[in-house]
Design a protein that fits this description.
It is a single chain. By secondary structure, this protein is of the alpha+beta class. The protein folds into 2 domains: 39 residues, YefM-like domain (YefM-like fold); 43 residues, no CATH class. Helices cover 63% and strands 17% of the residues. It has 4 helices and 3 strands; from the N terminus they run E-H-H-E-E-H-H. The N and C termini lie far apart (59 Å).
């Protein structure tokens, strides 16, 4: 269950919110005037999410390059290298 706090709670109980973020690895959602405004998380969780996002983007770029014919899947490239070695052309 997500933890939701008001911006006033964040201001008045920062250490408690920080402890929850670090201990649970989950974000704390902050409201402003009763509406969602921010998600607060530990630096470790943020870096993990950022790293995953970058990895997913690299994988998507690689898949797009394969579909566009600019790159080959690793399996195909290795098969071609093995064949070239067997043929003596490499």
């Amino acid at each position: 269950m997500p933890l939701i706090k008001s911006s006033t709670d964040l201001r008045n109980h920062y250490n408690e919110v920080s402890t929850v973020c670090h201990d649970t690895g989950e974000p704390v959602f902050i409201t402003k005037n009763g509406r969602g405004d921010l998600a607060v998380m530990s630096i470790d969780v943020f870096e993990d999410l950022t790293g995953k996002k970058e990895l997913y983007q690299l994988l998507a770029d690689g898949q797009a390059s394969i579909r566009a014919g600019r790159k080959k899947p690793l399996h195909d490239a290795m098969s071609n290298i093995r064949q070239d070695l067997a043929d003596g052309t490499l």
